[in-house]
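Structure tokens please, single chain.
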Amino acid sequence: MRLQQIVLHGFKSFAEKTAVRVLPGITCIVGPNGCGKSNVADAIRWALGEQSPKTLRGHRMEDVIFHGSASRKSIGMSEVSLIFDNDGTLSVPWSEVSVARRLYRTGDSEYLLNKNVCRLRDIQDLFAGTGVNPKAYALMDQDRLNHVLTAQPWERRSFIEEAAGVARYKQQRADAQGKLEATKQNLQRVRDVMDTERRQLASLERQARKAQQYKALHQERQGLALVMVAADFAALTSRHEAVAQELSRLRAALEERQTLIAALTARETLQRHSVQEVEYQLADLRQSVQKMQLDAATLIERRDHIGTQIRELDAEDVRLAEDIRTIGERRLGFGVERQEKARGLAEARQRHAEHGRRAGELEVLVQGSRGRLDELRRRLERLRLDQVRTAGRRAELTREAGELRERSLNLQRRLERLEAEVRQAEAEAQSLAAARGSLEERHHRTGAQLSLLEGERQQVEADLGEREQLRAHMQATVADLRLALAGRQSQLDALTVLEREREGYGAGVRAIFAGGGASLRGVVGTVADLLEVPRGLETAVEGVLGDRLQWVVVERFEHARAALGYLEREGAGSATFLPLETLPAAEAPLDDSEEVRWATRLVGGPHPALLRYLLGRVGVVAHLDQAETLWRRNGVVATYVTPAGEVLSPTGRLTGGRRNGDSGEHDHSILRRKRSIRQLRDEVEAIEGDAALQRGLLEAMDAEIAALRSREVGLRSSLQAQEALRLAGSKDLEAAAREEERTRRHLETLEAERGHLDGERAEATARFEDVEAALLGIREAEAAVEREMESVRESVDAGQREEGTLAGELTACRVELAAVAERAEGFARDLERLEELDIEA
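Here you go.
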């Protein structure tokens, strides 16, 4: 076998389809770095089934697909094909074998053998034992070569076995052992399942009977239900018309009510909108009223101030009119007038000074009055805040006092109910104690009965265990017989198929016994079919007869002519035909001696003439030296053969050695195959007899085990019933104990709760008294604050009046001061004018 060609398409750097022819004599691939030398080696390894991307110098298996370059787009598929020249090493009828592997970017992949889709296992099986696989010696990188050179002897053994062709058979043996082990495990699981099913059979039968009873009762119930439904239907039908009329009337009334409801709903919606609008208007009016009240207060204050100013201006107007009149009279005489003006100026200046001092004093008094008034107002505000806080505290204490009073009443009622519960719990505890004593006595009786049943069940279980072990041994024996029978039957079937298909015969012989040749008349069989060769002489007989074993024996000569004509017409090959009628009559066989045994006495068959014709002068000797001695005696002219197949003819022609294809017992020997078929048939019959006997014993054991299991099931049922009673008694006893414990804890809880309630009631009473005392103090404090607030209000009113008086005096003084200043200026101007007039005069 030789690798002829490697075809790469889309594998790594080989974007285009590339064919590499491996001619005889090529030992290496030489080229610069990066030209793809290693990719060719990776392609061979990958096409033969390599599954590790790291071994192919990648991270993922998709890395072997061409990823594209600056001048080419990536492609979606990688394919490598290896073409081998088959010289018979591969067990396929082809002279040229093509192995291919494809991988798509979608992750799909496939293997092809001569362009037919196959499995990776098919390729591995094909090349097993040839050294051509990714892990064998034919494909090695540098690291693995170093590993082989430094490997231990047991590690090198795998390479030697692969080179010797043994690894394939070891793998097949391992696979067969794995299948056998899996079959044994499956058989064991089947036994376990069968045992489980048998144990559940009685329960399932009871369930089946109950299911049948349920089915019958269910059918009866359905029948009764149908009768009742029919009666109900008749009654309902009679009531249907009345109900329909009533329904029509109610529907009409419902429509009227719905119409009325819709109208009322619409009116309600309109009125709701109107109310909302009125509320919005009312809110706006309230805001307007508040604003107008504030504006009115401001205007009233301004009106009072303006009235004061008007009165002051009226008084000033009167004074000014008087001054004007006086000045007019004084014009009558400048002299007197100058004197009067001078006196008026002096008086005005004196009055101005007096009014200035008075205004300063009034200003100080007004500021002091305002400060005292502000302090009183702040004090009043603080008192109001204290009053609000005190009122809030009083309301809180009042609420707390009401809650405490209600709480005291509730606690009293709870204490009364608690006393009643305590008395009831004490009575219940006494009743539970008596019931628990009765349950304990019944529980002890059930336990004793359960112990008796358990002892009997254990004895039955021990007997059943012994029978189960015997049955398991019998089943193992039957299983072994089945496995042995399956193995022998498989071998027999395989050999029968080979014999039926005439494997090892020539094409013409196979054509005679297959297809259209099977209808030929007078065909008795082949020579090999008509010989009964003892064990150990197959090689000797085959060595003597050779191709004559494939001769076709017919009854008459015309039968041979007809068969030969058939082969010529069909072009099915050639064959040698031996008519029985042409054979000479059988002679008496020669006598055996210590040195030689004659084949006609050793080999049997239905046609003695045929035996005499083929083996009449054939002697069987122990070894070749003995044959040579007999031949050299020049005695009887005969052919001598050894059990190893070494043949010495009368003419001295010596034939021997191992023929091509012979590999021991399992070669293509026709006679050994026939002997194996006969032997296997005898073994199959013997194993079938033993298996039938074991099955009979197993059935008897199954019947005995079934009886024991039935007894065990009955005991288990009784045990389950007693156990159920015991468990029920235990549960009742535990429930009684729990109930008694619960009642005791309930009593303790009630006592604790009663103590807690007493404490709470005492605490609530004490707190109520404290709250009442606090309320009394707060009421007194509220009265004191109210009195103080009244006093402060009076002080504020007095301060406001005082401030108003002082403010009025200050305003009048300021007005008078301004008037006096103006008169003084007038007097000064008049004096200047009079002086000017005097100067002019």
